[in-house]
Design a protein that fits this description.
Pfam families: CheB_methylest, Response_reg. The protein is an alpha/beta fold. The chain is 37% helix and 22% strand.
């Protein structure tokens, strides 16, 4: 019979999986500072974790990638196939770590936090508040069983006016896969797309490169003053705001290291506000899954400027924070499941201003 540990009502029950005794202890200490989190156990490798999941029935896992006996990605793949549950990856802050983390998100991990190679205790402690919030949000996330990969769906036979339209997309938690799903459906000659995903600096370029492999469009890691062209998508670099600036009859990318907006840099609000000013009714925008409310006010500004505005619906969102906040503000003309958003964005580009 499964053994249940004592539980206080409403507390998020966390199982920590990491081969480092130091990391397990540091994570236990910083998570236990939050009265709404209970660390129900730790495991030094996935095989121990497998048994403890059955015994302790946690709400959410933290999972390292490099571990003995079974690597974290193999464990995650098995978990999402057999017993889907929320997982937050604890990843190395390196480009190699970024690639593995993006693999984990593709397999169904809800979110990730980064840990430095050196002075792990101080590094993790610096992210303590962020980690605690991510775990509480992850515990409420919608996690679906891992599905076999399929070929991208065709985008249809709409006729596109690619010289005077612009699409803007913003996302956070769960957004790396949501954005990929949208770009997979875009034709090669789609209107230009500008994208802000909350992501650390070391992760944004590998993210753009991964999107490029999954899209008929050319996906680029945005650079300052880069021209915005049809058939191209531009991903905001981690640590920099991406804005759109009109230059004659064209648009260009502008990157800024100014203050974070609602704690984020890049910020979706920064992107959406700039698109509202630079493109107005010639824009279409979608706010996807994510924690918090970044992008909600920017989407409202876009709607007031005449742009077509969409939010991802609650059922298909990993976390309905950002799209829910925009819906509450009245910023959304349409609330759609993820698999309908690409078509709606494309349709809006053929129908004139929103």
């Amino acid at each position: 019979m499964a053994i249940q540990s004592p539980q206080r009502p409403g507390r998020v029950r966390v199982l920590i999986i990491d081969d480092s005794a130091l990391v397990r202890q540091v994570l236990t200490d910083i998570l236990s500072e939050d009265p709404m989190i209970e660390v129900v156990g730790t495991a030094a490798d996935p095989l121990i974790a497998r048994d403890k999941i059955k015994q302790l029935n946690p709400d959410v896992l933290t999972l390292d990638v490099e571990m003995p006996r079974m690597d974290g990605l193999t464990f995650l793949q098995n978990l999402m196939r057999l017993r889907p549950m929320p997982v937050v990856m604890v990843s190395s802050l390196t480009e190699a770590g970024a690639q593995v983390t993006l693999d984990a998100l593709a397999l169904g991990a809800v979110d990730f936090v980064t840990k430095p190679k050196l002075d792990i205790q101080r590094g993790l402690t610096a992210y303590a508040a962020d980690l605690r919030e991510k775990l509480k949000q992850a515990a409420r996330a919608r996690v679906k069983p891992l599905q076999p990969s399929t070929a991208p769906a065709a985008a249809g036979t709409l006729q596109y006016r690619t010289t005077d339209r612009l699409i803007a997309i913003g996302a956070s938690t769960g957004g790396t896969e949501a954005i990929r799903a949208i770009l997979e459906q875009m034709p090669a000659d789609a209107p230009a797309i500008v994208i802000t995903q909350h992501i650390p600096p070391a992760f944004s370029k590998p993210f753009a490169e991964r999107l490029n492999k999954h899209s008929r469009m050319t996906v680029l890691h945005a650079e300052d003053d880069m021209p915005i062209l049809a058939g191209h998508a531009y991903v905001a670099p981690g640590g920099l705001h991406l804005r759109v600036q009109r230059s004659g009859a064209r648009w260009r990318c502008r990157l800024g290291e100014d203050e974070p907006i609602r704690r984020h840099r890049p910020s979706v609000d920064a992107l959406f506000d700039s698109v509202a000013s630079a493109a107005g009714a010639n824009a279409s925008a979608a706010l996807l899954t994510g924690m918090g409310d970044d992008g909600a006010r920017g989407l409202l500004a876009l709607r007031k400027a005449g742009a077509a505005t969409i939010v991802q619906d609650e059922a298909s969102s990993v976390v309905w924070g950002m799209p829910g906040a925009a819906y509450t503000l009245g910023a959304a003309q349409q609330v759609l499941p993820l698999d309908q958003i690409a078509h709606a964005l494309l349709a809006s580009t053929t129908q004139g201003p929103g």
